[in-house]
Amino acid sequence: MIKKSQPQPMHASMIADSPYLYDTLVPKDHLLRQVKERVDFSFLYDVVVDKYSAEKGRRAIAPEVIGKVTFLQYLYNLSDREVEEACAQRLDFKFFLDLPVEAGAPCDATTLCKVRKLWGEEVFEKYFEATVAQAEAAGLLGKKRSVDSSKTLMNAAVLKATHLLRRLCERLLDALKDVLSADRLSHLTSEAEALEEDTSWWLSAELKERHYLRWGEYAAALLEFAEEFLKAPGEAEALGNWSRQKARIEQWARLVAKHLSDEGTEAELKFRGRKDKLVSDVDPDARHASDRKQRVKAGYKTHVSMDQDSEIITGLQVTPMNAEDGPQLLPLLQDEQERGLDIEEVAADTAYSDGPIRAGLQGDVATPAIIAHIPEPQPKPSADGKFTTDQFRYDAEAGTVTCPSGEVCTNRKENRSKGGFNFYFAKATCAMCPLREKCLSKGELAAGVRRGRSVYINAYRQLHDAAKVHQETEEHKQAMHKRLAIEHKAAEMLHRHGLRHARYRGLQKMLIQAYLTAVVVNLKRLVKLMKQGKEEVRQPTVGELCLA
After folding, report:
1. Is residue 346 within a helix (H) or strand (E), and if so which, with residue range?
2. Is 345 helix (H, G, I), strand (E, B) or coil?
3. What pLDDT does 537 receive?
4. Helix H or strand E encompassing 191
């Protein structure tokens, strides 16, 4: 059962005259005063009503109070405990929450934690979408978007392979101990204890690698035992909490299997990493990635779509840090279009320049085309200084390829595995070409040119060539200049509102953090735009938009 909050008239209390103090001490241009006048958080009541029972439990705290407290928490980058203390001590917080001066915090840190679990990311997604809807109703949104991503470091340590595998085995063994007798697990327990007591791996890299392989063999045996047990649990199935215990065993067995499929030896991992490698047992959704300086980080990526005219965040997605930026662009824009937002242009960096993305932006019968201001990356020169594929001119209409010396090739064959075409220049043409030294390999030249040059043309080559021409236009340059504003927006989210570090663990909770951070920066921006005189008439509140 939840209580629908009713606005309480301010009155003189026994301690102090609250309205007088607030009017005197909270400035008229205070951000919280501006937000309070323009945002109605009561819409959250209708969003979360199905999350509570009308017959069971005690009366819950009003959803709009929770919404306001979480706004304060992310606005000032506070922890659950810190925002609880601030609500009990700060006058501007009390004013924003409609509390008398002498009142304590409306909820404690434990309540905030439980509410996040109860509401889930769906409620906070609607919270975020409501801020976008208010900007749309106010006529602030344009039809141009900027897209970029930022990294969030996970709230856990990145473990070395051996340490991680040992902890995964310990957790799986503990889950089995809760439902099986010590006798059935004695051989597994004794082997684990022997491995933990062995400290010889400190002496050399070879022994360290051997120690890791022993843990791998033990993990494989433990995993096989767990899988066989789950197929025939026997008497354990009669336990009252069997479903919960079974879920625990399945969870840790799945992570052990994941780690075994990811990892090689410690020596191999030094030279080759697995892109989707498990990095933590307490945050199994997080992944690692390296930046340009080869510094390994682990966590998540927040992919943001921002309106260029108003600088309002209109869409976002959260992925593990190892996810590529490009594939997130089309789902981001599609989600906005499904919410009724019109998009005509999008600006992004070269990470979004993949061929399938450019093809998707061309539109179809159901969706209109979107103009893409996405520059092409600089082509990498070949290691031996030879001509690269980009230096061969492709004519899609004629079905020909022209080499740097001007020779035209029409002999092509469809590449079914990759898509696109393979073009084959004649042997005689290449043998007589004055540029053959820069085109053919050393082995081919030494053999007397046994075959001509072959060139693979990607299926999206025509779109890439058109993008190269477009990026030289003034329209593209202006769009990329406007796109720089999203860098400042990302910095605001990362450094002022705590998105640089994950508050919680797991992809779903990380999504909640991203939504609430976007709510804060959007409401701040809305207030600023309205103060600048862009709100000529009274605009619908967030609550009115959601109820409609």
Report:
1. strand 345-347
2. strand
3. 37
4. helix 186-197
Contact (CB, 8 A) for 425 and 451: no
Task: Assign residue 269 a region (left: φ > 0; alpha: ψ between -120 and 50; beta: otherwise).
Answer: alpha
Residue 514 clears pLDDT 70, i.e. is over it: yes
Per DSSP, the three-state class of 458 is coil
DSSP state of 36: H
Q: What share of the chain is helix, strand, coil (3-state, %, to 5)?
A: 50, 10, 35
Q: How far is Cα 208 from Cα 268, in angstroms, rounded to an integer?
A: 12
Q: Report the SS3 class of residue 305.
A: strand
Across 503-531, average pLDDT: 93
The yes-or-no verdict on residue 266 having pLDDT over 80 is no
Instruction: Dig out the tokens for 327 from the structure.
Output: 């594939």
For 420-460, the pLDDT digits (tens) are 899 999 888 888 888 888 888 887 777 777 888 888 988 88
pTM, 2 dp = 0.86
Task: For residue 74, count CB atoms less than 10 angstroms from its CB and return exposed for 0-12, middle for 13-18, buried for 19 or more.
Answer: buried
Cβ contacts of 447 within 8 Å, gap of 6 or more: none
Q: How far apart are CA 27 and CA 123, in angstroms?
A: 32
Count of CA atoms in the C-beta half-sphere (13 A) of 418? 13
pLDDT of amino acid 205: 84
Residues 326/353, Cβ–Cβ less than 8 Å: yes
Asked if residue 126 lies in contact with residue 106, where contact means CB atoms within 8 angstroms, the answer is: no
How far is Cα 524 from Cα 489, in angstroms, rounded to an integer?
A: 12
pLDDT band at 267 (very low <50, low <70, confident <90, very high): very low
Spatial CA neighbour of 16 closest among 106, 95, 102:
102
Average pLDDT, the chain: 86
CA distances from 216 to 161, 261, 452 (A): 10, 11, 50
What's the rounded Cα separation, in Å, for the pair 129 and 152?
22
The pLDDT of residue 13 is above 60: no
Is it the case that residue 534 has pLDDT exceeding 80?
no
CB-based contacts of 185, cutoff 8 Å, min separation 6: 173, 176, 177
The pLDDT, as a whole number, for residue 263 is 61
Between CA 434 and CA 404 the distance in angstroms is 11
3-state secondary structure 359-404: HHCCCCCCCCCCEEECCCCCCCCCCCCCCCHHHCEEECCCCEEECC
Please spell the DSSP secondary structure of 233-299, one letter per residue: -GGGGGSTTHHHHHHHHHHHHHHHHHHHHH---HHHHHH---TT----SS-TT-EEEE-TT--EEEE
Q: Give the distance from CA 127 to its chain's centroid.
A: 18
Q: Are 333 and 315 in contact (CB under 8 A)?
A: yes
At 538, the pLDDT band (50, 70, 90 cuts) reads very low
